[in-house]
Amino acid sequence: MRIRAIAPLLTVLAACIASPAWAQTAVAIDPPAAIFTARPGEEKTASILIANPGAEPTRVRVSLGDWMYQPDGQPVYLDPGSLPESASSWITFSPAEFMLAGREKKIVRYTIKVPEDAAAGTHWSVLFLQGEDPNAQPGANIATFKIRVAHTIYVNVPPIEWDGQILGIAAVPPDEPDQPIAIAIQYANTGNGAYAVTGRLEVRDAGGNVVGEAEIDRTVVLPGATRVLLANFFGPIKKGDYVILAVLNYGSETVDVAGQTVVSLPFDLVKPAPAAKSEPETQQGTP
């Protein structure tokens, strides 16, 4: 069984202090995520490239953290070591703080040491890199946006079991003919490995004929977690009763996960009108 690569994750966090004047510092990283396979007792080393895209110097601070998804896909950030699957205590990095001149790039290296008693499955952590104004003075009348970027680290400790199931599907008909059928799929990762689930929706009439399809966005689902996958199906389609079939795949070349529900349309759905193009602005007056 071949497992497709987990979609890279890039998390940008912003916090600000309200004040009349404004300054901003930012850094860029490459790559935004990395996936490793390591057995208990093994070590892995890697590096990330940190760049200052601006002209002004910035101070960069590096830290570790845990994270998880809520069912609606919103990330939750936690202290390192908060989760049972955390890999934060396995990771050391250097340097922890450094200066970047304008347009300068530097390397941050890290080492993962998997404990001898590590449980099988995917473990994960995140390296946060935060750019700060090196000239900011305490109490100064200026607001500084501290923008954090993240390098997500996944460590697969064999054996990995890939599995998942659909817990339920709901389909809500629209209020207006040019609006879509809204579909929500509750999906659970029942294995011990993180992966990206992909899929499609099929809309079938009473005779079993496929009258339309819609794509389901690629979504990362952590082991033991539940996510709600959302999709919309637009017309044209006649009024009546339809079966909504969801077909999902978590990387297997031989196994799909499927589930279905029924929706009743009280009126025909029409294709939405294209969005109106805004007229270009014209300048008036004498040149």
Question: What's the structural blueprint in terms of helices and strands?
Answer:
Layout: E1 13-15, E2 22-25, E3 28-30, E4 33-37, E5 43-51, E6 58-69, E7 75-78, E8 91-94, E9 97-100, E10 105-113, E11 121-132, E12 143-157, E13 164-172, E14 181-189, E15 195-204, E16 210-221, E17 226-233, E18 240-249, E19 257-265
What would you give as the CATH superfamily of the largest domain?
A: Immunoglobulins
CATH classification, class level of the largest domain: Mainly Beta
Largest sheet: 8 strands, mixed
Could you tell me the number of beta strands? 19
Strand content: over 45%
Helix content: under 10%
Mean pLDDT: 86
Number of spatially distinct domains: 2
- What is the CATH topology of the largest domain? Immunoglobulin-like
Number of helices: 0
- Report the order of strands and helices: EEEEEEEEEEEEEEEEEEE
The helix-and-strand class reads: mainly beta
Oligomeric description of these chains:
single chain
Radius of gyration: 24 Å
Any overview of this molecule?
- This protein is an all-beta fold and 287 residues long.
- It folds into 2 domains: 28-135 and 143-157, Sandwich (Immunoglobulin-like); 164-265, Immunoglobulin-like, CATH 2.60.40.10.
- 0% of the residues lie in helices and 53% in strands.
- The radius of gyration is 24 Å and the shape is flat.
- Residues 1-23 form the signal peptide.
- Keywords: Signal.
- This is Pili assembly chaperone N-terminal domain-containing protein.
